[in-house]
TrEMBL record:
Belongs to the 5-formyltetrahydrofolate cyclo-ligase family. Keywords: ATP-binding, Ligase, Magnesium, Metal-binding, Nucleotide-binding. Its EC number is 6.3.3.2. The keyword ATP-binding applies. It catalyses: (6S)-5-formyl-5,6,7,8-tetrahydrofolate + ATP = (6R)-5,10-methenyltetrahydrofolate + ADP + phosphate. The keyword Disulfide bond does not apply. It comes from Ruegeria pomeroyi. GO terms for molecular function: 5-formyltetrahydrofolate cyclo-ligase activity; ATP binding; metal ion binding. GO terms for biological process: folic acid-containing compound biosynthetic process; tetrahydrofolate interconversion. It is an enzyme of class 6 (ligase). This is 5-formyltetrahydrofolate cyclo-ligase. Its cofactor is Mg(2+). It holds the Pfam family 5-FTHF_cyc-lig.
Length: 185
């Protein structure tokens, strides 16, 4: 294991602990600020995510956005591959996907222009630390090569870190929405 891998692992461990504490203390309605941000992009195809473990829950904001345009959720295709996005609706039937995240029962592929991105930690410059699989980095790189693609991190305030161990392949966030604020980069 190289130094950067060990540093990232330690940063993830600390961030997971901060996220769990924030999740346990989270008031209902944390997605309200995300809904406010997304209101400025009505009808633009977007992807959210199905929350797992202690991730902040974007589902209320996704349901609101789905009334105005297409909303998808990520579906993992395999290790080393970018994500694909399946059309999601608040009432649609779901099945269990990789890593325990729920995905639509029937895949109806779409391509988002806005991605609401889950994360383990973020910094004040738009850096993001994910789970380590590189799925969002590969996906954002591919989408951004085709067109402008907005990456919005959704997290608890407590997930902010001073500095993150980032690599050149790590794709930056354009914005982070927390339960109390909106940061633009």
């Amino acid at each position: 294991m190289d130094d950067l891998t060990a540093i990232k692992a330690a940063a993830r461990k600390a961030a997971f602990a901060r996220r769990k504490a924030a999740f346990d203390a989270c008031p209902a309605g944390a997605a309200g600020r995300l809904s406010e941000v997304l209101a400025g992009y009505r009808g633009v195809p977007l992807s959210g995510y199905m929350p797992i473990r202690t991730e902040i829950d974007p589902l209320p904001a996704m349901a609101e956005a789905a009334a105005h345009g297409p909303v998808g959720v990520p579906v993992i295709q395999g290790a080393g591959l970018p994500l694909r996005f399946s059309l999601w609706s608040p009432e649609g039937p779901l099945r269990e996907g990789p890593f325990g995240a729920m995905v639509p029962e029937t895949d109806d592929w779409m391509e988002p222009e806005i991605l609401i991105v889950p994360l383990v930690a973020f910094d004040s410059r738009g850096g993001r630390l994910g789970y380590g699989g590189g799925f969002y980095d590969r996906t954002l790189q591919g989408l951004r090569a085709k067109r402008a693609t907005l990456a919005i991190g959704f997290a608890f305030d407590a997930q902010e870190a001073e500095a993150l161990p980032l690599e050149p392949t790590d794709q930056p966030l354009d914005m982070v929405v927390t339960e109390s604020r909106v940061l633009s980069f």
